[in-house]
Amino acid sequence: MLPTPSTSHVDIDRVYEPAEDSFLLLDTLSSAAESAFLKERFGQEPAVGRNPGQNPSALVVEVGVGSGVVLAFLTAHAQAILGRSDILSLGVDINPYACMASTQTVDVACHDASCSNPGLFLTSLNTDLTSVIRHGTVDVLVFNPPYVPTAEVPQTTNIHENSRVGGMKTKYEEDANLISLSYAGGADGMEVTNRLLEQLPLALNAERGVAYILLCKQNKPEKAVQRIRSWGSGWTVDVVGRSGKQGGWEKLQILRICRGS
Predict the structure, then answer these.
(1) 135 closest CA partner among 180, 202, 191
(2) Which of 41, 139, 130, 129 is nearest to 89 (CA)?
(3) CA distance 244 to 216
(4) Residue 11 class from Cβ within 10 Å (0-12 exposed, 13-18 middle, 19+ buried)?
(5) pLDDT in tens, 78-87
């Protein structure tokens, strides 16, 4: 079993604390079946039908990186999970404190004694979803979105400003807003995820791009699956991780979305 990166340094008042959804992603990505899939797609030995020059190192991006536990896990254990250590990894988060926390998490994981040959972590960008990422460059995208159904999605336009009508925003209010960004998904918990799905065809590598997106039963994942399949025959979508059955329903599930052969 691959060790889970430490997040003891993370300020959980401002940054989402690793929970069941985070650990489901770790378990799924490191499972024998999924690791075999990723090694076939990205390992240093070229996949069937590809020439050696067509199998360059992979760019792994976690959108909504939070504490960084998932990205640190993939970066530190790239050889075991993707079949090569010469990967590049990048985090993205609208929460600036998550960017700082995730950077430290990856750094700690890659310098741990149990990590002998990690990938290369680039940085964590304080930005919205894939808006600043060059089209067609992402090989592996991981997204643990804000999936809880809520009346609205928190505003992000003035996240760096500590002011509001009627006086200064308190630390409690500021922290509460930052944390709500990690779970409040709006209608059906899908408003942010739907925006990511709109961007996905442009963000992923056209030949080998793959995305892992976590959903809960309230998100009506069957609708997301139908939407992805409507993109055309060049796309496939499968449920590759499940957790927390309640009354016959899977509380959480992970979709693997692929393009190319």
Answers:
(1) 202
(2) 139
(3) 10
(4) middle
(5) 999 999 999 9
